[in-house]
Design a protein that fits this description.
The chain has 258 residues and is α/β, with parallel strands linked by helices. The protein has 11 helices and 8 strands. A hairpin with a 5-residue loop joins strand 3 and strand 4.
Length: 258
């Protein structure tokens, strides 16, 4: 059964796109069929998967505005089991267009419904905001992963984020539980990183799952997008690749325990 997971945080620089791409790629490497949907007009997830965002004919924008079908805007990546539903700057005007539609928070869900059985996992890289595109991502999702960087102000804005998730659940009648909190940009040698982990655990207490896997601060993870590759292709042996493979196995194990 397909699970749709939004990678969400309204803060930039927390590893949201890095997680969507590299967790998706790791699960694909482990034999799962994966689709990564880029819901950010910047199109960084698209570029990171080797898709030339300014040369493609169809994107997520064309899908949600009814100009193409789902199959017409899905692209194969270099990794066999990994597909991309790309984005580019054209998506930046979608919020205004969608706001005029009746039932606009449900548009993406309607486009995906009954057409995603080919995939084990679908990851949505949501934009760093809590607007209409993010609402569409949440309504279409079964769960959410929240990456939190191990840096000062890591939890800033978290109450607003949780309130938005709750809003989708109560007002839009679309439950979207938090699958897990992921610590990113982690350097265990620093006291700050350890303090942030303590603060995250104290903030969520036992209410939310905090992944055992922590994503390290790793130069190869930062370099890989400039080579238009997930890190598992750019450098299979680096600590960043190994961490995302470990996270992928942790998620598969969680599925088995449910």
């Amino acid at each position: 059964m397909t699970e749709v997971i939004t990678i969400l945080n309204q803060k930039g620089g927390c590893g949201k796109t890095t997680t969507a791409v590299n967790l998706g790629a790791s699960l694909a490497k482990l034999g799962k069929m994966v689709l990564v949907i880029d819901m950010d007009p910047q199109g960084n997830a698209t570029t990171s998967m080797g898709i030339e965002k300014n040369q493609i004919e169809t994107t997520i924008y064309d899908l949600i505005t009814g100009k193409c079908t789902l199959n017409e805007c899905i692209y194969q990546t270099e990794l066999e089991n990994l597909h991309s539903l790309p984005s580019n700057i054209s998506l930046s005007g979608a919020e205004v267009e969608l706001s005029k539609e009746i039932g606009y928070p449900y548009i993406l869900n309607e486009k995906l419904e009954n057409h995603v059985d080919a995939y084990d996992y679908i990851f949505i890289d949501a934009p760093p905001s809590l607007g209409i595109l993010t609402l569409n991502a949440l309504v279409a999702s079964d769960s959410v992963i929240i990456p939190i960087q191990a840096e000062f102000y890591a939890l800033e804005g978290m109450l607003d984020l949780l309130q938005t998730i709750k809003l989708v659940e109560t007002r839009l009648k679309s439950p979207c539980p938090i699958k897990g909190i992921l610590i990113t940009l982690y350097d265990g040698r620093t006291r700050l990183a350890r303090d942030v982990v303590f603060s995250v655990k104290d903030f969520f207490k036992d209410e939310e799952h905090i992944f055992n896997t922590r994503i390290p601060r790793n130069v190869k993870l930062a370099e890989a997008p400039s080579y238009a590759q997930p890190c598992i292709l750019y450098d299979p042996d680096c600590s960043g690749t190994k961490a995302y493979l470990k996270l992928a196995k942790e998620i598969i194990k969680l599925e088995g325990e449910q």
